[in-house]
Amino acid sequence: MSRALTVFAETFKLRAPFRISRGVKTAAEVVTVTIGQEGLTGRGEGVPYPRYGESIASAIAAIETMRGAIEQGLDRKELLRRMPASAARNAVDCALWDLELQQARSNLAAAIDLGRPLRPIVTAMTISLDTADNMARAAAALSDAPLLKVKVDRNDPTTLLAAVRAAAPEPKMIVDPNESWTIDEVRGMQGLMRDLRIDLLEQPLPADADGDLVGFHSAIPIAADESVHVAADLDTLPDGYGVVNIKLDKTGGLTAALELAAAARARGLGVMTGCMICSSLSIAPAWAIAANSAFADLDGPLWLAEDRADGVSGSNGLLSPPRPGFWGGV
């Protein structure tokens, strides 16, 4: 029996503005895909990202070009060959995963040989870029969370980070400049990050300045985000990186994300799981990577004023998986 594909845009308002070095978001704009077959429906979500030249319109158009093949039974392996890594491919790949697991009467934990049911994980709670006082207030409210992620730019990150750490002395901390620093600024921040007990520095340099990290030995691990999308990107990754941030919207789905995670670990790199500002439908498949990651940054849905029903739930940095049947089979 043939399949039925639907693809449409959805908007989820945020409970507060989300600011990074590139700008501010007040809503999550996603592309949702459903693939129906014999009474079952698989769902997937992608978040097109302007940084990668994507938009809602371009993602929907890319999926529509594949409509015939998808409805005629295209599998995930062929999907990887015929669509580039993108939010569009992510939405389709994850919908196929969901459909296949339902058809097999299986679930995600079994499919990835996790050896146990999905269980709550620690996620970074993000403090978006703001004034030092506002960031300190946000940090104080999260001071009991296990892990914070702090967004900064080139505008006096020293003051911002010191304010956050003073307000939240205990949590582990990730610092994310979103490609806004230079290598001289990275060098200049080494002592402060060590003194503030920063655990991870995420993509400080623009991806096209990666060469500056060749041979660089940081006081704390540096994670590659924008610099790594799929496993092949590891071939040119500078040795200054020690961790890879895996996001399904970058890899173009869970299938390629699992390949990237395996390749990263084979090279001795640490694995982090990240997300865009999204709904729980993006987070559910990412659990397959996050379950075995050193760091998880999956608080995207927690920024929404209203998430999808039966999705993930979070309390003080502990994220619980969606209810059974939300995504990923039984």
Give an account of the 3D structure:
This protein has helices at residues 56-64, 67-71, 76-82, 87-103, 108-111, 132-141, 157-167, 183-188, 190-195, 248-251, 254-266, 280-290, and strands spanning 4-20, 23-37, 40-46, 121-122, 125-127, 147-151, 172-176, 200-202, 222-224, 243-246, 270-273, 295-296, 313-315, 318-320. The protein is an alpha/beta fold and 330 residues long. The protein folds into two domains: 4-111, Enolase-like, N-terminal domain (Enolase-like, domain 1, 2-Layer Sandwich); 121-320, Enolase-like C-terminal domain (TIM Barrel). Helix 12 links the parallel strand 11 (270-273) and strand 12 (295-296). The two termini are 22 Å apart. The model has no long low-confidence stretch (mean pLDDT 97).
Keywords:
330 residues, three-stranded antiparallel beta sheet, globular, alpha/beta, Enolase-like, domain 1, TIM Barrel, 31% helix, eight-stranded parallel beta sheet
Which helices and strands, and how do they pair?
Elements: E1 4-20, E2 23-37, E3 40-46, H1 56-64, H2 67-71, H3 76-82, H4 87-103, H5 108-111, E4 121-122, E5 125-127, H6 132-141, E6 147-151, H7 157-167, E7 172-176, H8 183-188, H9 190-195, E8 200-202, E9 222-224, E10 243-246, H10 248-251, H11 254-266, E11 270-273, H12 280-290, E12 295-296, E13 313-315, E14 318-320
Parallel strand pairs: 5-6, 6-7, 7-8, 8-9, 9-10, 10-11, 11-12
Antiparallel strand pairs: 1-2, 2-3, 4-14, 13-14
Proportion of residues in extended strands: 15-25%
Q: Give the averaged pLDDT, no decimals.
A: 97
Number of strands: 14
CATH topology type of the largest domain: TIM Barrel
Number of helical regions? 12
- Under CATH, the homologous superfamily of the largest domain reads Enolase-like C-terminal domain
Instruction: State the order of secondary-structure elements, H for helix, E for strand.
Output: EEEHHHHHEEHEHEHHEEEHHEHEEE
**Helix vs. strand class:** alpha/beta
Helix percent reads 25-40%
CATH architecture verdict of the largest domain: Alpha-Beta Barrel
Query: Can you tell me the overall shape?
Result: globular
How many domain modules? Answer: 2
Extract low-pLDDT stretches. none
Please list the strands of the largest sheet in the order they lie side by side.
5-6-7-8-9-10-11-12
Mind describing the biggest β-sheet? 8 strands, parallel
What does the radius of gyration come to?
19 Å
CATH class term of the largest domain: Alpha Beta
How far from one another are the termini?
A: 22 Å
